[in-house]
């Protein structure tokens, strides 16, 4: 096990697990979500040279209305990268997960206000944090490592991990099993 736990519970690279529980609503079955994830990924991969303009077109390709999601409930911007990471290419921190030579975030992080440089503003709730994220950020490194080991033991797939986080029950299960107060 890596001595340094991941900075956030949304992406645990050593377990090849990603959470998209806050990236949609009223999720349908695992199969339906995987189908839409595959379609999103195909659309994303068709963009040969991502520019700001092309990424905004990608974001709005189903509808410029942020309330419109894929039929499975998954946000239309969530994609699978070749590294096994499932994430949003519009997220300003994407290059902490994906090498720039594989995908270079095209939005300038320094020139504009935060709303102008983060294309998710007005499109998704960028300030939302699930219970797992909130608790994890208050854990010590030892507790974070225990959490990652617990997730590894559960052998969750991305869908189950995401749904349990999205429903705010994963962290409760973890803390109960550890004997910690919720």
Can you walk me through this structure?
The chain has 182 residues and is mainly alpha-helical. The protein has 2 domains: 11-126, no CATH class; 129-182, no CATH class. Helices cover 37% and strands 4% of the residues. It is built from 7 helices and 4 strands, in the order ββααββααααα. It has helices at residues 30-45, 52-59, 114-117, 131-138, 141-154, 158-166, 170-178; strands spanning 11-12, 17-18, 79-80, 86-87. The chain has a two-stranded antiparallel ribbon with strand order 1-2. Strand 3 (79-80) and strand 4 (86-87) form a beta hairpin. The protein is globular. The two termini are 26 Å apart. The model has no long low-confidence stretch (mean pLDDT 90).
Task: Give a quick summary of the entry.
The protein contains 7 helices and 4 strands. The chain has 182 residues and is mostly helical.
Features:
7 helices; single chain; 4% strand; mainly alpha; 182 residues; two-stranded antiparallel sheet
Secondary-structure topology with pairs:
Elements: E1 11-12, E2 17-18, H1 30-45, H2 52-59, E3 79-80, E4 86-87, H3 114-117, H4 131-138, H5 141-154, H6 158-166, H7 170-178
Antiparallel strand pairs: 1-2, 3-4
Q: Strand portion, in percent? A: under 5%
Span of the ends, CA to CA: 26 Å
Name the helicity range.
25-40%
* Shape verdict: globular
Helix- and strand-based class? mainly alpha
Record field, number of beta strands: 4
- H-E string: EEHHEEHHHHH
The number of distinct structural domains comes to 2
Mean pLDDT: 90
Rg result? 17 Å
- Major β-sheet strand ordering: 1-2
Number of helices: 7
Low-pLDDT residue spans: none
Largest β sheet strand count, sense and barrel closure:
2 strands, antiparallel
